[in-house]
Model the fold of this input.
Amino acid sequence: MAAYHEAGHAVAAWTQKLTIYSVSIEGNQQDAGYMIHEDSLRPSDLLFSPQSGRTRLGAERNIRVALAGEIAQKLFDPSSVEDRHGANDRLAVDTLLSALHGAMHRSLIDAHFRLLEIETKLIVSKYWSVIVAVASELLRQERLTGVRLSRVIKEATSHWRLSRDG
Done:
């Protein structure tokens, strides 16, 4: 299940045009896997300019990436998802949305979350065959570098006429 979870993160990061350094299902006691990617926010963005368009768009990109793991895992096998699987991802999402809107605006946070969740479900659905290809490669290799991941994605999309933007 970790392979689909991490593949979901990786493919979502690719659709958001973030550089991916590595993705792995080599787990530890806290996590079943991980993905390391470029952050679309600078550390000071949320602190000094949480209302700027650049900050909002960067946070939304990160949120889609965070949401995609559990969504992909759930699409692969709904019964495999436990609360603990996406706990760190959900915490990151809530932290970003609270920073954007202020913790006191819960209804706005919830509405923004629902919108991003819908967008992410559409991304996962559209790129499901790519997620399956990445998950399969993760099951074979356990860890993929960004370069290897790019090759897997390129192979999985080579028959497509449209780019990832289309």
Remarks:
- The radius of gyration is 16 Å.
- The mean pLDDT is 88.
- Residues 2-157 form a domain with the Methane Monooxygenase Hydroxylase; Chain G, domain 1 fold (CATH 1.20.58.760).
- DSSP finds seven helices and three strands in the chain.
